[in-house]
Amino acid sequence: MSGMAPEMTEQRARRPRMPVIDIVRGVAIIAMMAYHLCWDLWYFGFITADVGFDPRWVFFARSILFAFIFLAGVGLVLGHGEGIRWRPFWRRWLLVAGGAVLISIGTYVTFPDSFVYFGVLHAIALFSLFGLPFLFTPLWATGLAALALILPPLFFVHSAFNQKALSWLGFWDVPPPANDLVPVFPWFGVALLGILAARLARKMGLFERLATIQPHNLPARILGFMGRWSLVIYLVHQPILLGIIAPLAGVTGVQQQSQEVQFLSSCQATCEATDTTAALCANYCQCGLEGIKRDDLWEPVFTGLISAGDQAKLEANNRQCSALIYPELDTPNPQ
Questions:
Q1: CB 294 within 8 A of CB 305
Q2: How far is it, in rounded angstroms, from Cα 114 to Cα 304?
Q3: Do 109 and 198 lie in a common domain?
Q4: Residues 57 and 177 in one domain
Q5: What is the dihedral of CA 97, 103, 109, 113, to 10 degrees?
Q6: Which residues pair with 118 in a beta bridge?
Q7: C-beta separation of 212 from 151 below 8 A
Q8: Helix axes 278-294, 308-322, angle to 10 degrees
Q9: What's the CA dihedral at 67, 237, 30, 28 to 10 degrees?
Q10: Which of 210, 226, 249 is the last residue of a domain?
Q11: What is the pTM of this model?
């Protein structure tokens, strides 16, 4: 480190925490837990709200992600704003990176076709490394870099980025299957916005004012505690939720019932759009449902990950069921 500027030498003095930042992080972790609870309930069929795809739920999820990535940038300035404290940095970084590895392993075991290979913890680990130089660049350069990362995905997409190998960069036109994916473009730009905001706040003396705010009421203490332990909470809350909800769904059969209702509703609407009568469409869709159950095709149909063998079974079932609508055809097709 001999060639490093004086401001980038390691600072060993202990820095006091800002309770306000911990409280904000605690609010974000509660919002994230609430979203994951609703997603799990939707996935297993306990609620009908389309948590995975409804634009309002997607906006809620993106808002929570924005808060976490933005706060990660703020945290870099709070911890290393006047000089990088290398030992605490690497200790924290190894915890985050280790958590990311655990998330990948856990989701690969649970959801092998849509496991998390570059989720929020992976992104925070990478952004923490990439963000260090921006603790010391001119403010205008940090802001310009943030825009250079946030704006391009609004104007450029390409199918080459649909594959896992490149999807972590962003720019896909069809996102690859993953339960969580936080690409460099635009989210590293959000982290830089957090760095920029925190550096501006420090320059304006806002850190000193925020440090004087020391709430001691019970809600503030609970939120502050959750904010300080947000990484641990993030790692353990989903296994706990899934450990309760998944067995309950298996015992009650609610997931299978929900999938059947979703399939019949979607099939009926698609069939009637071809000017086929509702009664014939009901017969056709019920036949299709029985074929999916018979051939054990629930997971391929609902995940969209259909192998060649599964596709052959679906096409054979479609021909059989289409005969209920077009009995005069040898290989009828309602499309």
A1: no
A2: 11
A3: yes
A4: yes
A5: -100
A6: 181
A7: no
A8: 140
A9: -10
A10: 249
A11: 0.77
Single-letter amino acid code for the residue at 64: I
Q: Tokens in use for 125?
A: 């680990």
Are 40 and 170 in the same domain? yes
**Domain of residue 113, residue span:** 17-249
Amino acid at 112: P
Distance CA 71, CA 197 (A): 10
Domain termination residue (choose one: 210, 227, 249):
249
Kindly report the three-state secondary structure assignment for every residue of the chain: CCCCCHHHCCCCCCCCCCHHHHHHHHHHHHHHHHHHHHHHHHHCCCCCCCCCCCHHHHHHHHHHHHHHHHHHHHHHHHHHCCCCCHHHHHHHHHHHHHHHHHHHHHHHHHCCCCCCCECHHHHHHHHHHHHHHHHCCCHHHHHHHHHHHHCHHHCCCCHHHHCHHHHCCCCCCCCCCCCCECCHHHHHHHHHHHHHHHHHHHHCCHHHHHHCCCCCCHHHHHHHHHHHCHHHHHHHHHHHHHHHHHHHHHHHCHHHHHHHHHHHHHHHHHHHCCCCCHHHHHHHHHHHHHHHHHCCCHHHHHHCCCCHHHHHHHHHHHHHHHCCCCCCCCCCCCC
pLDDT in tens, 67-93: 999 999 999 999 887 789 999 999 999
Q: Residue 255: pLDDT band by 50, 70, 90 thresholds?
A: low
Judged by average pLDDT, the poorest of 235-239, 283-287, 295-299, 310-314 is 295-299
Model confidence over 140-163: pLDDT tens digits?
Answer: 999 999 999 999 999 999 989 988
* Domain count of the fold of the chain: 2
pLDDT tens, residue by residue, 90-127: 999 999 999 999 999 998 988 887 899 999 999 999 99
Asked whether residue 306 falls in the same domain as residue 212, the answer is no
Q: What was the pLDDT predicted at 181?
A: 95
